[in-house]
Amino acid sequence: MLPMEQRTLGKTGRDVSVVGLGTWQLGGDWGEVRESDAFDVLDAAVESGVTFFDTADVYGDGRSEQLIGRYLKDRGDADVFVATKMGRRADQIPESYVLDNFRIWNDRSRANLGVDTLDLVQLHCPPTSVYSSDAVYDALDTLVAEQRIGAYAVSVETCAEALTAIARPGVASVQIILNPFRLKPLDEVLPAAAAAGVGIIARVPLASGLLSGKYTKDTVFAPEDHRTYNRHGEAFDQGETFSGVDYATGVAAAAEFAELAPEGSTSAQTALGWIIQQPGVTSVIPGARSVAQARANAAAAALAPLPPSTLDGVRELYERRIRAEIHARW
After folding, report:
1. SS3 content of the chain, % helix, strand, coil (to 5)
2. I need a labelling partner for 106 at 20 to 30 A (CA). Which of 34, 271, 327, 330 fits?
């Protein structure tokens, strides 16, 4: 196994690789993934130094968790910290986020992953008011006391939700969309998290593949791929698909972003390297559907820091292309 830089994931106290593996793809919401291919991806990530998997109980209705559980059972030498999520198995109303439901969801995730105690459980982008509920955090503290979970965290859609959660003493980490097309968390969220000792997990790091530079305006995605059916937030928050950026705008911006990649680095690796370089980021969790993707993503951890000219270029591109488009739309 190759070594990789490790950073402490907030209040979990656990060191994890700066490049983790997001496993939404393995659940099937990005098109069909064969079981054997999924295991190959997990193995390639571990062999490349990844020690952090991120999943959720709704990825493929538990398929992602089950695949990870079976893989880690068979791969006894893999020291991997697994973060899962809960909350999307019920109506998205604050009343769903209660201790009895938490226990039911936890039991299902523990069975899927084959463990007695879940390493980390994140509230899965719940209604905004949930982040402010004392009863919710009391229930999460109860799960820790019952040794169902080792620690708890949140996955958020907005910076305001992140800041609300960071203020809670028991929140170990915050998962948030962060990439060269989504810069807003840099202003307040990352500094607040660092000051509070809260880890930052950066998700959607390639803007649903846009920042890989391999898509054109004519690319067609499979019907079961969320990049087909959720471009305008039809199924869940629009920010989860292409970071909420209009597809045509994103394709054009991605072509410009590719020109910022240093020699020897792909567009995707440059995007991942940019995220790793942001102060306060613990781990970035790109997904992968192939062994080559998993290895290439992990290799981004070994790249030299991006020069100031590239960092300035990312900011200029964001302001001119992305922020302007979003402002015009709203």
Report:
1. 50, 15, 35
2. 34
DSSP state of 93: S
**Contact (Cβ atoms closer than 8 angstroms) between residue 105 and residue 142:** no
| Tokens coding 326 | 């979003």
Residue 175 in 3-state DSSP? strand
Q: Are 122 and 153 in contact (CB under 8 A)?
A: yes
Task: Report helix, strand or coil for 178.
Answer: coil
Q: Which among 119, 181, 180, 189 has a CA at the least distance from the CA of 161?
A: 189
pLDDT digits (tens, 9 = 90+) for 76-126: 889 999 999 999 999 999 999 999 999 999 999 999 999 999 999 999 999
Q: What is the pTM of this model?
A: 0.95
Residue 292: exposed, middle, or buried by beta-carbon count in 10 A (0-12, 13-18, 19+)? exposed
- What is residue 98's three-state secondary structure? coil
Q: At which residue do the structure tokens 């009863």 appear?
A: 135
Q: Under a CB-based contact definition with an 8 Å cutoff, are residues 65 and 54 in contact?
A: no
Distance CA 89, CA 60 (A): 12
